[in-house]
Amino acid sequence: MSYWFTIAALTGINVLLAYSVYASFMSGQVSIGQAAFFGVGAYVGASLTVLGGFDLISAVLVAGFAGAAASLFVGVPTLRLKGYHFTIATVAFAEAVRVILHNLKYGRPRSSGNVGDQWLGPDGATGFRHIAYLNENGITTGQYALIVWVIVVIVVIGFFLVERSRIARILRTIEEDEVVARAIGIPVARYKVAAFVCGGFIAGMSGALYAHLLTFISGGDFIIHLSTIALAYVVIGGGQTMWGPLLGAILFTVLPETLRPIKDFRIELFGLLIILVMLFRPTGMISAAAVRRWSTPWAPKAQRKRPTEAF
Amino acid sequence: MSKRQKAEFQAIKAFGLAGALAVTLSSAATSPARAFQDEGTIILCSIEPLSGIGTSFGQPNYLGKVIAVDEINAEGGIEVDGKKMKIKLISEDDQAKPDQGVPLFRKCAESDNALVITGTQYSRVTESMWGLLQKKLDDPKDGGLQVPSMSFLSMKAGVTGVSEWAFRNAGDEPAQHELAIKLMEERYGPFKNYSGAVEANEGHSVAAWKAAYTPALDRRNIKATEYVEWYETDRDFSVQIRKLKRANTDFFILSSHLQANVGAMLEAQRQGFKPKTIISHIGSDAAEMVELGKQSTEGIVFPTAIHMAFPAPKVKWLADEYKKRTKETYMPQFVGLGYEGIMIVKEAIVKAGIKNRPETLAADRRKVRDQLAAIRDYKSFAGMTLNMNANRDIVRPVYLVKITGGDFKLYWTPEKGFLF
Known about the structure:
Chain A is mainly alpha-helical.
């Protein structure tokens, strides 16, 4: 079972990463910078348990705030940009953070290390070893998966509530037409930054959870590819509703694992399924309209309006 | 339900069915590895990159293991507790990705109940996998996995320091490069300008530069005249090669793998950059270096552990077997390391006196682990004698290979010195 618990933990981490993209996606901002916040969270979280003696939950929370701080740092100046310009700015930021993490060295010497293993903490391109919190504290993979999924459930509940609140309508209005949103008095920049920072917070927590699951991290783990995959979770799952990122991340993580026995063909088969989704469901697996229809099948058609229509 | 709703529902249902079918097909394509003890088999796990960027190293290594297991099983298996037991080698593909390697390592240890896990081969993935192991033996506070694991390829310095359950049969990289530099200096020196190129996004290449090449240069009071970096996935090396050329580099250290080496060396050829000596690490030991790099990679020297030109008859047999199974003409050292690694594990199992029963699995793993740690004077099929050192790295003699005439020629041996 521990194999599937590990997959469950990885799936939960990917779900969080998907929601970190979705947070700003709701306001129409496509961020490719989540790998940076994820990486910052991973390094901060691991540093706190390995070097600072923190407990896991505190480390994860602080890592979340570190991710939020990083996203605030990049969000304030760049969220004035629109569309692709913003996306490109986040790419540049992600690459800058990756290079910084790749060269980061702090910590303390290890007295008993082998040649090449005499440093506790990030050691530049050699990476960050000995993230052994789970082993040292007797946390099983099942328990860890549970911790991850408790956090996932809290985040999902948070998005569930937000999606039914005025905030979601405002964000969707910004997504639909920023000029109109501004004209009706919505402080667009404030909402966009807030959504982006929320995404940074979730990515930071997710990164810390990832570091402890993998026991070793290096700057090379937090490349643009990670951000594009996270974006794909949202696009494939469906960016119009909060259920989309959940479904997308689960699909992307679990399906390749279940296909593992067919070896070389699994990636081809998985790729084929993705192409089919994009061909037949260009708005993603789940659309907002489908959610409305399923959640209120008894309601008259006229009442099943998009949130922005009811704003 | 409207027509559109019906169509939408049908589409989602179709995807669901397609997914379910895929899962069912995949499940049918395999048989679970359970109850191995009752069936009289010993389970070994083999994790390596069989697809993706590490395939050039993972596939040959895996084939070496398969050939060894086939040979052992053809002879009736391993004698355990008075009866012969065959080996079952469970193969897993980590695609050189740590997030795939970690669950697979757990699967091998806790679901497949493997006695020993071999692999993986990319140091980045090995580090994460071995991080799951108990760090210090008999530490009651450490809940890490207690299963011996041996990598036959992860070269990155210090990797085995992660756990006392971790072993390596890949060679001592600092010693390899010290020897290579010394020999090249003796033969072609003196050199004026030593320069290095490092694959900066690849842990092993960076560690080789930091823990092997730089100390070797420090010992000679030499500071690299030029130092450039590129990534494993880079396609343009013009700026770096120009810098190396401008530095009048005559001793070039190529701490990089084939994926970048081929492009870099083709660019070097285009720019007319031809240093007197080029040394590299095991990342250059792949047929693609000559198949794609052609003339540009001529003259590169790198260390090897096992070469198909070794005089031992078993090496020739292995090379022939490998060629028969793959239709390749060159057998990289990873095949020999994989083959030899399984034979080392086999000897440890035989000496450990295991019971191979479900209730003795933990004790059996510990016994095999202790035997691996105690390897002394092991006679390799390739003719050399091997010993495990205190860092759980097998100490083995170094040989040099030179790319010459579109082939990987054995260039220097401890017994005969330079061969050409």
